[in-house]
Amino acid sequence: MAATPFSLSSSVDLHHHHRHLRHQPPYFKSHIINPKIFPKSTPRFNLILTCSSRSSPTLQEQENPPPTGKFLSYPDLQNLQFLQSYKLFHKLPSGSMLLIRVMQEQEMDMIVELLAESFAESMLLPKAYVKLLAFLVKQYLIERRALMPHAATLIAFHRRDTDEEGGEMEDIQLAGTVEISFDKLGANGSPPTPIPPKEAPYICNMTVKKSLRRQGIGWQLLKASEELISQISSVREVYLHCRMIDSAPFNMYSKAGYSVFKTDSILILLTLQRRKHLMCKQLPPATNSISETNSLYDDDQNLAPTDVQKS
């Protein structure tokens, strides 16, 4: 699932920086993922949700503070701690495990690489523009991370256990990402058209690594986003965009309960943009259980039924 539509809104000037990037070394480098992000033993149930108790910050939270540079009210501090401790584990039918949590600062570069390549793919740009996109995406992610807890970027990791010469090996790789705006303070400054209400939660920039698509990872990212919105925002309507040509994402969003709220005018084609649907869903009232928002999505029957535990 490519990240569409392109909703990056940074203050960086595209043409100004293009002249300065031509002689820079390659942007991308290999990323090492800490295998300790997954528990040593695979849980017997398919899905676990571990949420913050909204108590004092943990050591990990203290080591990865968001660069807000501003005073946080007590409710904002509670929401920040809630986001930083959020973890969702999902077991795929293949036996692989999926971990979804909020992006940490040291993981930004791998998200930048994934989004830049996905944006280039969806916009049909030549590979020469990927590095430029990566530069802009990083500035954007830095700005967005500073808006926590009014916005958050989720990251998904995929773990496949392999048996190599009698020994167990773990193959852990980045699987996907999605961005959430919870309220007006976290709203995108220049959202795509049709423009969603700024005070309403908004989901955007969802992408799944090409080699891991059609396994239900996008569905789990969507459901994790909805669960966080239900816990943090008092507004029940959540919005997202979907290009009219993207039938697979549209079918997934429709299956999840989203309906078309508004559609771009055909005149948008004059600006060399694809027409998009603005889709909306009414979330149920927040509860202590996420079973309502983690129903089975039959993506070629790639997802198993889920059991839920919340601690």
UniProtKB/TrEMBL annotation:
<protein>
    <recommendedName>
        <fullName>N-acetyltransferase domain-containing protein</fullName>
    </recommendedName>
</protein>
<dbReference type="InterPro" id="IPR000182">
    <property type="entry name" value="GNAT_dom"/>
</dbReference>
<dbReference type="Pfam" id="PF00583">
    <property type="entry name" value="Acetyltransf_1"/>
</dbReference>
<dbReference type="GO" id="GO:0016747">
    <property type="term" value="F:acyltransferase activity, transferring groups other than amino-acyl groups"/>
</dbReference>
<feature type="domain" description="N-acetyltransferase">
    <location>
        <begin position="98"/>
        <end position="284"/>
    </location>
</feature>
<dbReference type="InterPro" id="IPR016181">
    <property type="entry name" value="Acyl_CoA_acyltransferase"/>
</dbReference>
<feature type="region of interest" description="Disordered">
    <location>
        <begin position="291"/>
        <end position="311"/>
    </location>
</feature>
